[in-house]
Design goal:
By secondary structure, the chain is mainly alpha-helical. 73% of the residues lie in helices and 0% in strands. The protein has twelve helices and no strands. The radius of gyration is 23 Å and the shape is globular. It starts with a helix and ends in a 9-residue tail after the last helix.
Length: 304
């Protein structure tokens, strides 16, 4: 994903610069999406064998007459009983293998992950508007910034994270993979990456030159190390059969953050621009600082 985000803006910037047409990248994107849609329907094969398809269809079979009879009553019943936040119960397990420390870790990990995701979602549009206002950047400069930052994210995910894991954990040991919970290495990576991202946002609030702003963006790219580590740590706290439920709960939290965070941070920027332009970055840095504090309350495996 980050590779696409890194290369896409840079390619679009050069297309606009060369052809002098702001709409051309959208035509190209539409063409690519159309080809992708056609490939999904006609080219990419079904992953399940015919036998497994038939088993799945038998499990999902139902009596159409019974189902479509009182359909309005069924719809009303579903609406009355549906609870949007029900998937979040997975983050508070009460079974035999759970305890207070496991529940606390799950809630803290989910809170940190959702906070980081929300801040990143709420930052994209603000950075574009802010750099245009503060540094007089155009489409080319903004696209170059986005590409540089996301190239750094790709490098951190493909080079730095595997290297850290190899150096700190050593060769893979299957005997250790059955245990549950985060270890000290997970927490080290989570805390260190969040701290780097916090320092990057503090830099955003202090710098007054475009090139230094890009360097601060490169510093925030180390935060990419936290996301996969947080997801891995979350799944280590639950049995394998509950992994999908936990990831589903995180998907719900991410969806809520995707809606709420941009509204909050764009509101802060619109209220402070022209008075204290960097106020939104101070708030973002403080939010990351809160995540750093929360991460220190997560207990490693063996301490609970």
């Amino acid at each position: 994903m980050y590779t696409g985000i890194a290369l896409g803006p840079l390619i679009s910037a050069y297309i606009v610069k060369f052809f002098k047409d702001l709409v051309l990248p959208f035509y190209i994107a539409t063409t690519i999406h159309t080809l992708y849609f056609i490939a999904i329907i006609f080219i990419i094969p079904e992953s399940l064998t015919m036998e497994r398809q038939m088993v799945a269809r038998e499990k999902a079979s139902f009596n159409h007459a019974d189902y479509y009879g009182p359909w309005m009553a069924k719809v009303r019943s579903q609406i009355k009983t549906y609870n949007l936040l029900a998937p979040l119960k997975t983050l508070w397990p009460t079974g035999e293998n759970s305890n207070r420390a496991v529940r606390r870790n799950l809630v803290l990990l989910a809170a940190v992950d959702t906070t980081m995701f929300g801040v990143i979602m709420g930052t994209y549009s603000i950075i574009v508007i802010y750099t245009t206002y503060k540094f007089d950047w155009g489409n080319f400069e903004t696209s170059r910034y986005v590409s540089i930052v996301n190239i750094c994210r790709v490098a951190n995910l493909t080079l730095v994270l595997p290297l850290l894991s190899r150096l700190l954990r050593g060769p893979r040991d299957p005997a250790k993979e059955g245990r549950s919970g985060s270890d000290q290495i997970d927490l080290f990576i989570i805390r260190g990456s969040i701290l780097c991202e916090t320092l990057g946002y503090i830099g955003y609030s202090l710098v007054s030159m475009g090139p230094v702003f890009i360097l601060c963006g490169a510093a925030t790219s180390f935060g990419a190390l936290a996301s996969p580590t947080l997801q891995s740590a979350l799944t280590k706290h639950v049995p394998p059969e509950e992994t999908g439920a936990v990831l589903g709960a995180m998907g719900l939290l991410h969806a809520l953050a995707r809606v709420v965070a941009p509204v909050i941070f764009n509101g802060i920027y619109s209220a402070t621009v022209g008075k204290y332009d960097q106020a939104v970055f101070v708030c973002l840095a403080a939010t990351f600082g809160l995540s750093v504090v929360l991460s220190w309350f997560i207990k490693p495996y063996g301490e609970y």
